[in-house]
Amino acid sequence: MNATEGLYPFNLTPEQEERARELHESSIIIDFLFQGPLSPKAIPDAVSEDIREACEPYREDPWTYSAMPSKIIHDMAARGEISEFKDEWYRSGITAGNRQLDVSSVDKILISMGDIQRQFDANDWLVKAVTAEQIRAAKASGLKAGIVTAQETDGLGKNLELLEAMYNFGLRVLQLTYNNQNYIASGCAEEANGGVSKFGMRFISKMNELGILVDTSHCGKQTTLDACRLSTAPVIASHTGVENIYPHMRCKSDEEFKAIAATGGVIGVFAMPWFVHGDPNDTTIEHVLDHMDYLVRLVGVDHVGIGTDWPMSDVAWSLVYFKEHIAPRIGFAKGDGPSTETVKGLEKYSYFINFTRGLVARGYSDEDVRKMMGENWLCVFEAVCG
User: Fold this and answer.
1) Of 51, 64, 226, 315, which one has the fewest beta carbons inside 10 Å?
2) Which residues form a coiled coil (predicted)?
């Protein structure tokens, strides 16, 4: 990759460019919803076609067919067959990003635990981070850190012992619900806006006891407010946007943001083009930065971070299939992403320096840039997880 590839035209001066480069290289950078390091634009076309051929026999089962490409990609990366897996992560400058468990069923929990552990076992440059100090150590040693997280709780049922077992595996961030209703709370796609259940109160208490961050990203408004009231530890939204900028169900209100900040929590802004701007085909990193600016003005720079959630470690044809056949089944309106659109300036994770460059362009100090690029996440992670 040449020195200017992927650089968004912020019209920085040479001095600003050098400052942004030095900041990016020296800072601890954390993407708290990191679907990378690969993306459709980073995966070779030949690999994409091989994966399509391998998946074709499973086309009659939409869930399996949709999930297989990502699993195959991670298997190939673990075997060292996709060099871009490491290359893209290092080019991005990201110090730590989450590695995501599937908690939709007990079977999926076990399978995804094995898949995630294989990533750590197969790559000597990738370490499982369960404390903030391990993230700092990774940065100092030129390594990358993976934080084990999950976005749903359905597979746990009401089994708090299983939650503890997942903590012992390394789980440190858990979202209460994904769009819909479960035993714990109501998601953002539920019209009833029911909030946290009685069992959910016990569940949050157990998370606090263990040291697992309470994530409210896909939660409904009342659930978010209840979680902030009930939790004795900081609450986060790892990946969301500002409702007052773009009124999507996945964005949150000022009331929710203030409640999260009041717990000492952090709000991560996502880079999903359907959720931050009205035209997903013309969404730029400037639109993402607009959401960050708004939050800084509303709750202060100490409570703002990044949780891109896009692009996926997947192939383009699979993402199109997901949008058409899977997304409507998990709470998204028909045609309402995710698909192949990307934010201009973040088509690949190796372009992540555009966040640092954009914050410099908007006049933030070095200290504030470092906070939003990762130090805020590091602080809340340390406060809850150690």
Assistant:
1) 64
2) none
